[in-house]
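Is this the right way to post structure tokens for a design question? Let me know if I should format differently. Anyway, here goes:
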């Protein structure tokens, strides 16, 4: 019987989110500065679309700030000896905070918009157009900063989703400004604010499902257990597999454990090495703890997950 542990990303420097801290910081500075401008202009102009987008910007500020803190914590070595997996999950918790903020902003905007539909709010359109255009430019810049990181880190992906939603919000503000200018009625501003709120809620649900999948230790997205089993069983010397578990620790870091039953005469270390290669090369699982057995132990069969 033998065991093997593969860990190509053992160093904190391999953490996906940590590689994008500079870009997160730049996006945070841009969004925080514009949030103040948009909120003041929204209150002064009476535009719910601007105020709702400013509320979403506030969510961005908190989300980006949380993302920065999370990536700092996640890349920090553990000095206590208690966190055997390190602090990588910090980014997942930060993404969960982003989801809660987005849902809160969406609820406020939708409720406020519904309450204003029956009225005729007085809205100044020129500030809406100017600030909407400025906000769109800033959000596009932030999207370019975060786009690459959103493919690797759930934390950066949460921040990226926020910025994408804000870009859509800025487009909505511009449309609302045009409608108010053409009609002289503030109803268009209210309807656009309602659309922004619904859009933000949908994006929050999408990200929230991903966060829950990680926290629930589901098999990573795009991977199937059957395929992993088939590939491991194709390793020379492996006759059976049991107690296979695969989950995501944090973005870009998948983890697996399994017991491999080997046939007579099979070299345990060779089987382990080959199994680790299969997991890393075919499924991007580079953190794997594998145990080799000549026959399944009774204890393995007694465990019911």
């Amino acid at each position: 019987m033998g065991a093997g542990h593969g860990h190509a990303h053992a160093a904190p420097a391999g953490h996906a989110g940590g590689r994008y801290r500079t870009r997160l910081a730049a996006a945070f500075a841009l969004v925080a500065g514009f949030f103040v401008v948009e909120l003041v202009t929204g209150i002064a102009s009476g535009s719910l679309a601007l105020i709702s987008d400013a509320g979403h910007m506030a969510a961005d500020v908190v989300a980006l700030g949380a993302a920065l803190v999370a990536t700092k914590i996640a890349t920090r070595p553990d000095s206590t000896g208690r966190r055997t997996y390190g602090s990588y999950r910090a980014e997942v918790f930060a993404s969960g905070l982003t989801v809660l903020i987005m849902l809160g902003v969406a609820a406020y905007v939708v409720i406020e918009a519904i309450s204003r539909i029956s009225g005729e709010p007085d809205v100044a359109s020129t500030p809406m157009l100017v600030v909407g255009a400025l906000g769109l430019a800033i959000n596009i810049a932030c999207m370019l900063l975060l786009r690459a990181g959103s493919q690797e880190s759930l934390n950066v992906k949460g921040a990226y989703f926020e910025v994408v939603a804000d870009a859509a919000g800025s487009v909505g503000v511009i449309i609302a400004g045009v409608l108010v200018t053409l009609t002289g009625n503030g109803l268009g501003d209210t309807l656009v604010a309602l659309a922004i709120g619904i859009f933000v809620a949908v994006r929050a649900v999408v990200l929230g499902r991903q966060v829950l999948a990680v926290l629930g230790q589901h098999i990573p997205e795009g991977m199937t257990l059957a395929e992993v089993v088939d590939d491991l069983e194709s390793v020379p010397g492996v006759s059976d597999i049991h107690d296979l578990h695969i989950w995501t620790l944090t973005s870009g870091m998948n983890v697996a454990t399994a017991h491999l039953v080997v046939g007579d005469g099979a070299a345990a270390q060779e089987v382990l090495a080959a199994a680790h290669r299969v997991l890393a090369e075919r499924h991007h699982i580079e953190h794997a703890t594998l145990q080799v057995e000549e026959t399944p132990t009774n204890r393995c069969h007694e465990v019911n997950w």
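Format looks fine. Someone answered above. Worth noting: The two ends are 23 Å apart (CA to CA). The chain has two domains: 12-215, 219-302.
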